[in-house]
């Protein structure tokens, strides 16, 4: 049914939102009435009521029972159709859903409404020729390999009891009691507390007081908390600690032997094969991190070069997504008790705005420059991801078993295309990066 609808567009946006628009809609009452009658006739064909054969219930009864529903559905459908036709004719890109409200009207032939909604922003892509992007460079060599193997050994360390004074690298177990102005303070007491000296689990002055003590020895010492200490009531304050060492254990690193190779997944314990696998995985991880650092810079540059107005509807949707993801993560980490943790919308506004802004900018760049993902590019990324699994061919088949599983990979490919496009337009400066810095390891 074609609805006799008229519309007008109030192009003047509200001062607080440059993306907001208003459409005045009017749908013919006669058209609505015809649609209501058609809906009631369709309902009547299947309407059942005691004392009447199916489909033979009088129209007046059907209307009495379902008239309000038919009118609601007919009016909604007419308004949706009128709104869709209006925005299409004006080539408006609607963001979110319109808020449609009736208008006060004396018309006897039409029902009038106002639709308030937001449109997507018009984006004019900014220049990147004056933007400098540092491209980190790192070649994996013997030193990086040995550092990685040392980390892998440390991850599999065991601690054996020793009868000597505690030193850096030892794991100690202690009782401690802290007092401020002669009174115990919150968080200043623990029993059978284990930590590794030198790893920064405790403040440096505290660790230095433990170093040199043997199991069974005690010590009292004064200490001043740093001025920027996280607990504000203790920041810069002088306290006294009494400690008692219960146990000292020495770190025993595994040997680089067949057992170590098997612990890393090399079934036959071949050391040469193990080193080759570690090197392959290390190079893949280094490449991923280098690309990640470049991508972060590119995204930041795109945000600065392309300020955009963010539709409130899209912002709110992204805030809700982030809140839901955070709640699920907290529930997984803290159990069902975290299910109803009170989330504050304000926590997620900045992150949501950044994500929506980037999405709008990237979409425009991809459209204007035809940077869509190619099938061979997606295949390459899938194969690269699969190489980190024990049976790569099964992972590849899993991705291609259902096309929707490739959506995430296609997103990665598009981002790679955007990064390459941006680097071709910006000033790129190669800069060697330290291995420990790239990997986030302590020197």
Please outline the helices and strands:
Layout: E1 5-10, E2 20-28, H1 29-46, H2 59-89, E3 94-102, E4 110-119, E5 132-137, H3 142-155, E6 158-161, E7 171-180, E8 183-196, H4 204-210, E9 218-224, E10 238-252, H5 258-263, H6 271-305, H7 312-334, H8 349-369, H9 375-386, H10 392-401, H11 407-423, E11 427-432, H12 435-439
Parallel strand pairs: 5-11
Antiparallel strand pairs: 1-2, 2-4, 3-4, 6-10, 7-8, 7-10, 9-10
Helix pairs in contact: 1-2, 6-11, 7-8, 9-10, 9-11
Protein name: Trigger factor
GO molecular function: peptidyl-prolyl cis-trans isomerase activity; protein folding chaperone; ribosome binding
EC number: 5.2.1.8
Report what the structure shows.
A hairpin with a 2-residue loop joins strand 7 and strand 8 (183-196). By secondary structure, the protein is of the alpha+beta class. It has 3 domains: 5-119, Trigger factor ribosome-binding domain (Alpha-Beta Plaits, 2-Layer Sandwich); 132-140 and 260-439, Trigger factor, domain 2 (Orthogonal Bundle), CATH 1.10.3120.10; 158-252, Chitinase A, domain 3. The longest helix has 35 residues, at 271-305. Helix 6 (271-305) crosses helix 11 and helix 9 packs across helix 11 (407-423). It is built from 12 helices and 11 strands. Strands 6, 7, 8, 9 and 10 form a 5-stranded antiparallel beta sheet that branches. It has helices spanning 29-46, 59-89, 142-155, 204-210, 258-263, 271-305, 312-334, 349-369, 375-386, 392-401, 407-423, 435-439, and strands at 5-10, 20-28, 94-102, 110-119, 132-137, 158-161, 171-180, 183-196, 218-224, 238-252, 427-432. Belongs to the FKBP-type PPIase family. Tig subfamily. Residues 169-257 form the PPIase FKBP-type domain.
């Amino acid at each position: 049914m074609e609805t006799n609808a008229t519309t007008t567009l109030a192009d003047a946006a509200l001062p607080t939102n440059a993306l907001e628009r208003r459409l005045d809609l009017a749908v013919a009452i006669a058209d609505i009435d015809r649609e209501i009658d058609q809906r009631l006739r369709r309902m009547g064909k299947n309407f059942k009521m005691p004392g009447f054969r199916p489909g033979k219930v009088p129209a007046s009864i059907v209307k009495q029972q379902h008239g309000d529903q038919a009118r609601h559905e007919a009016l909604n459908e007419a308004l949706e159709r009128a709104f869709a036709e209006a925005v299409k004719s004006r080539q408006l890109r609607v963001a979110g859903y319109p808020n449609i409200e009736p208008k006060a009207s004396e018309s006897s032939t039409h029902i009038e409404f106002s639709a308030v909604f937001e449109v997507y922003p018009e984006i004019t892509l900014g220049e990147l020729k004056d933007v400098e992007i540092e491209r980190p460079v790192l070649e994996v060599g013997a030193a990086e390999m040995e550092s990685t193997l040392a980390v892998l050994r440390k991850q599999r360390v065991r601690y054996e009891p020793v009868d000597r004074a505690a030193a850096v690298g030892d794991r100690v177990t202690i009782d401690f009691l802290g007092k401020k102005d002669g009174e115990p303070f919150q968080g200043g007491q623990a029993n059978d507390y284990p930590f590794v000296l030198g790893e920064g689990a405790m403040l440096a002055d505290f660790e230095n007081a433990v170093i040199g003590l043997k199991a069974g020895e005690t010590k009292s010492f004064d200490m001043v908390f740093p001025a920027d200490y996280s607990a504000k009531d203790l920041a810069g304050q002088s306290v006294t600690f009494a400690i008692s060492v219960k146990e000292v254990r020495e770190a025993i690193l595994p040997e680089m032997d067949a057992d170590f190779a098997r612990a890393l997944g090399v079934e036959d314990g071949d050391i040469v094969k193990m080193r080759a696998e570690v090197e392959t995985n290390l190079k893949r991880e280094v490449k991923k991190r280098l690309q990640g650092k470049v991508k972060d810079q590119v995204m930041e540059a795109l945000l600065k070069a392309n300020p955009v107005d963010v539709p409130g509807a899209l912002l709110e949707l992204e805030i809700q997504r982030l809140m839901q993801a955070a709640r699920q993560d907290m529930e997984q980490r803290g159990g069902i008790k975290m299910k109803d943790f009170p989330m504050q919308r304000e926590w997620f506004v900045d992150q949501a705005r950044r994500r929506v802004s980037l999405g709008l900018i990237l979409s425009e760049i991809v459209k204007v420059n035809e940077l869509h993902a190619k099938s061979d590019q997606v295949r390459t990324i899938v194969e690269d991801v699969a190489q980190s699994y024990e049976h790569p061919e099964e992972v590849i088949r899993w991705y291609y078993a259902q096309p929707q599983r490739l959506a995430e990979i296609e997103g990665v490919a598009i981002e790679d295309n955007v990064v390459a496009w941006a680097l071709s337009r910006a000033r790129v400066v190669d800069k060697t990066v330290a291995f420990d810095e790239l990997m986030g390891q302590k020197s």
